[in-house]
Amino acid sequence: MENSEKGESKSSVGQEQVQDLLFSRELGWQEIIYDLINSEQLDPWDVDLVLLTEKYLEKIQKIEQADFFVSSKVLLAASLLVRIKSEILLNKYIKSIDDILFGKKPEKKYSLERIELDEDIPDLTLKSPLPRFRKVTLKELIESLNKAISTENRRIHKEIINKNALRESSISLPKRTISIKDKIKEIFDNLILHFKKDKGKLKVSYTDFIGTEKEGRILSFYPLLQLENQKKVWLHQDKHFEEIYIWLKDVYLKHNPDPMEEIRKELEKELAELEEKENRRGRKLKEEFNNPLGEED
Predict the structure, then answer these.
(1) What angle do CA 203, 205, 209 make, to 5 degrees?
(2) Segment 58-100, tens digit of pLDDT
């Protein structure tokens, strides 16, 4: 009977906590602290932080032994309480919980001046007691922990965003430096060699020539645009997002009408119409200047 009671007390958690877990409500660190304040009969206006930390860790251990889920915030609150406890045990006195969790504010430095006295300085005696533990209320503890947890969550979220951005950029950007000039020459030489091997082909698709590897397709696209700008190749695409076909410029012009010819004719026509319009306007202005009153000859 005694063994069963000991085993039950070792692996069990509070009744309210079991109800929270059964109804799928996350057991928060605040609830654990409130429960400990009540169960351990701690003074909410003067919390024993050392005892509270010890009981908090024991409570988490019991919850884990009962195979219940413990959230990351509960564990983070535990680490913050351990930090506060360590500071108390080390220094025996604390000014503020925020000083421990967020770092102490820099102390103001004052310049010392030497004061000369004619009479002897009397000996100083200690009349006030040594500083004791500063009283920490439950409200102050909860507010400080909540502020520290929120700050840590923002830091973690920012760190995740930065790492994801770095990982995405490392995937999209080339992992090695290349010479654009050498790459242009390499692609054009490979293109000439490709058409020499298969003289029956007049054009080649971008996929067949470059391949399907993502980095290679990205690195080869800009040099091809430069080759077209140099009038060495002709890139043709029937519709947007469809396959791009690569021609040698002189081969394309032999087997296809000059695509610029129609544009050239339209431009020449527009220029002729514009010139005729300007001539008519000039003749009209000349007539008005020679005959300002509109008199008939």
Answers:
(1) 100
(2) 888 887 777 666 777 888 888 888 887 887 777 766 666 766 6
